[in-house]
Amino acid sequence: MNSHTVRTYKSAEPLAREDQLAWKIASIAADNVPLDDDVVDMIGNRIIDNASVAAASLARRPVISARAQATAHPYQKGATVFGLPSDTRVSPEWAAWANGVAVRELDFHDTFLAADYSHPADNIPSILAVAQHCGLNGDALARGIATGYEVQVNLVKGICLHEHKIDHIAHLGPSAAAGIGTALGLSAETIYQAVQQALHVTTTTRQSRKGEISSWKAYAPAFAGKMAIEAVDRVMRGEGAPSPAWEGEDGFIAWLLSGPSAKYIVPLPGKGEAKRAIMDTYTKEHSAEYQSQALIDLARRMRSKISNFADISSIVIHTSHHTHYVIGTGANDPQKMDPNASRETLDHSIMYIFAVALEDGGWHHERSYAPERAKRPETVSLWHKISTLEDQEWTKRYHSQDPNEKAFGGRVVITLKDGTVIEDELAIADAHPLGARPFKRADYVNKFRTLAEGIVEKAEQDRFIATVERLTSLKADELGGLNFSVSPDRLGQTSPKGIFDCNA
């Protein structure tokens, strides 16, 4: 890997194109290196993982709405939409939109955390939609996905967005554009412009994950994917982008990040170097914010030491800066303690999550968020006894570049009313690559079958898994098989009509 220093340049200060971050990203995207076998296998895992959570979310309102918007844009070639027959095609940017929302709605797919945080599998819907629409084969799709992961993971390693209250989709727009460029075999020049355009139009505030969190949390990555497709299309037609997007005097670093004097170090593979960043990422066993994964496992372990939850006086979770300030009491969001809060808000409340996991001994993507579950009096009582504290050692481990030290968990101190103290800690989730039960292909398949049960017919599940198994050998006319269809009665209620339906 090469480390690239990125800073602001005045307009009159020389900055060669090849020294710009967007060009360096474009260069690796245009570098057609072979994929390692384990990378191909992991790409297949994440395609299955995305389908798993999409299947479980098909009948949820945000997904219904996004799908209705997409089907209002039919296209003869086009791309597939989760849940619909594979011969039902829509314009690729709208397929990316609908599928991106379905993948993100339950907050249940892969993650990567470093200087910032991300869900790199959010790259897949837009790259797959373009591959289907443009008649690409499975090998081109896999190479595009590998690039999407490579760019997003390394941007997340080098540039912190959340300290400036910028949503993490500002890394996703450029990575998706780069991945699409790789899949299409575009030149570095074209990808360079598209990456910059995608950054420019996907920079949004972090309020989407603060306070009363709405369904936009699911829509935001889909928006980035949709914008990336449009950015690539514009540039392929000869249009340009704001440049240099990151380093410009009035650009991203100077005014939206740490200012003209700031420097960022972004690692990227050298020419001819394999794209392996996907191997640094990890999926979720539980449908909740990633920082809660290890703590759910820890709650499951600690509950056997408590005979009566009513005997608990307080629970303090000692954890990292990010966990404390984003999903903990350090956020100072009263909504995180509100039994009437939205599912999206409860997903970002480690106090609620730990209380339910402690009581139930596990976590369920629907039952754990049900309104009646959140309003259970004994749960509310326990929930309101939980607080978080930042521990510098956990913050250090959170930001460590050493995979053997890096951790996203915490230490939990439970004090009973009689003064008894019960204490335990867990650094990484059981399903993490270094955890107690690392996820393998069989676990991804099991997750898909579990979440698809009663929604996707068994034969259709089998066909989908078999298609993924042949990923890099798939021909262009077989990419539609990376979709699954369901009976119409599994798609939920019809969405209310919108602008796109005015002439329907």
TrEMBL record:
Stretches assigned to the MmgE/PrpD N-terminal domain? 20-263
Cite the MmgE/PrpD C-terminal domain residue spans from the record.
286-471
* Pfam family name, one: MmgE_PrpD_C
The residues the entry assigns to the signal sequence are: none
The UniProt entry, under InterPro entries, shows: MmgE/PrpD_sf (IPR036148), MmgE/PrpD_sf_1 (IPR042183), MmgE/PrpD_sf_2 (IPR042188), MmgE_PrpD (IPR005656), MmgE_PrpD_C (IPR045337), MmgE_PrpD_N (IPR045336)
Top-level taxon in the UniProt lineage: Bacteria
Query: What family name appears in the similarity comment?
Result: Belongs to the PrpD family.
User: What is the protein name stated in its UniProt record?
Assistant: MmgE/PrpD family protein
